[in-house]
Structure formats: structure tokens, C-alpha cells
Design goal:
The protein contains five helices and seven strands; from the N terminus they run αααααβββββββ. It has about 180 residues and is α+β, with helices and mostly antiparallel strands. The longest helix has 14 residues. The N and C termini lie far apart (about 45 Å).
Length: about 180
């Protein structure tokens, strides 16, 4: 899929409710509203370029070079003609069951709370963690924060999850 080139109109930045510049790549502040993709497609149409310069995708899809979601092996397996050859369906289901990720975590910045200065001159950011345990047994997970000098976790660090469950928590991260 040949994509158009950015024409530096900055409309994607102007329509972004969180004020990020998607032209600088994937950013954790993105809330996935799609406003930047819509306005970019409009500009690409006016310029006569193909749409899709900004689009919903995953890091895996981009690294694999999939131009559309239909190119993924999972979708291809799901589209196999199961009436003529049900073996494909059984093989696909077994493959997915054996290769599934037993643990998933989503880290989302809390949109309701902006970074704020707290006691001791520290800056606090609030994130929401959602842990998903797809295993058949209870597990205990420990979270930590690292990467900046003085960064600390301002919530409990150990979570227990029951089999096939989701656990959610808000946690704050403080840095000097």
C-alpha cells in the first residue's frame, strides 16, 4: 500500500484533544479518538494522495509489514473455508489456544487527572493498570516503575488475580 506524504498542514495536531503531534510517532498520551486520521484522510483526498498515512494499527502489524488487518495470519485462518475443510478451523483454534498470551496488561494514563505537583516538590502522574490473567490458576503480580532517577510507585505493588480474571487499579508515579 503506497501511502501519501505528510504535507505539514499540522491539522492532525490541531484536532488532537490531548495536543500530541502524531507525526513524531506512537505516543502514550494518545487516547485513540481517530480525529487525526480523519482529518489526514481529508487532506490526502484534497491533495490526490492515497488515504491511510495515519491509521489504526499495531506495532506488530507495522513491523510485519501488513498493509491491512486482513493480511494477518489470524484473519486468514478465520476466513478459511470451514465447510469444505473443517481441519483448518480446528488447527487454527488449537494454534490460537497454544500461542495465546496468558498475561496481558494495559497501562492507560488517567484522563481525569493531569500531572500535578505534590509534597516535596515531586510531580505526580496517575495511570490505570488493567491486568488480565488468562491462566487457569491464581497468580500474584508485582509492578514497579523505573527509568527516571527518583521515580517511585505511590500505590500497592503486589496484585493477586483469580483464574481468567481482570484486576484493575489506579496507581500514581512520583518523580522529583
Amino acid at each position: 500500500m503506497k501511502l501519501g506524504a505528510c504535507v505539514d498542514c499540522t491539522l492532525c495536531v490541531q484536532v488532537c484533544p490531548t495536543g500530541i503531534d502524531i507525526r513524531k510517532g506512537l505516543q502514550y498520551e494518545c487516547i485513540g479518538c481517530g480525529a487525526c486520521a480523519d482529518v489526514c484522510d481529508t487532506v490526502m483526498d484534497k491533495m490526490g494522495y492515497p488515504q491511510g498515512l495515519i491509521r489504526y494499527s499495531t506495532q506488530n502489524a507495522m513491523s510485519q509489514g501488513w498493509s491491512r488487518e486482513v493480511d494477518s495470519p489470524r484473519v486468514a485462518a478465520a476466513c478459511a473455508d470451514v465447510h469444505r475443510d473443517p481441519v483448518h478451523l480446528v488447527v487454527a483454534m488449537m494454534r490460537e489456544l497454544t500461542l495465546r498470551t496468558p498475561f496481558k496488561v494495559d497501562v492507560v494514563r488517567d484522563r481525569g487527572a493531569l500531572a500535578r505537583i505534590v509534597g516535596g516538590g515531586k510531580i505526580e502522574n496517575v495511570y490505570r493498570l488493567q491486568l488480565m490473567n488468562a491462566r487457569e490458576a491464581q497468580h500474584r503480580y508485582r509492578i514497579s516503575a523505573s527509568g527516571l532517577p527518583g521515580l517511585s510507585l505511590a500505590s500497592e505493588s503486589v496484585f493477586r488475580s483469580t483464574p481468567r480474571s481482570r484486576a484493575g487499579s489506579r496507581c500514581g508515579c512520583n518523580c522529583p
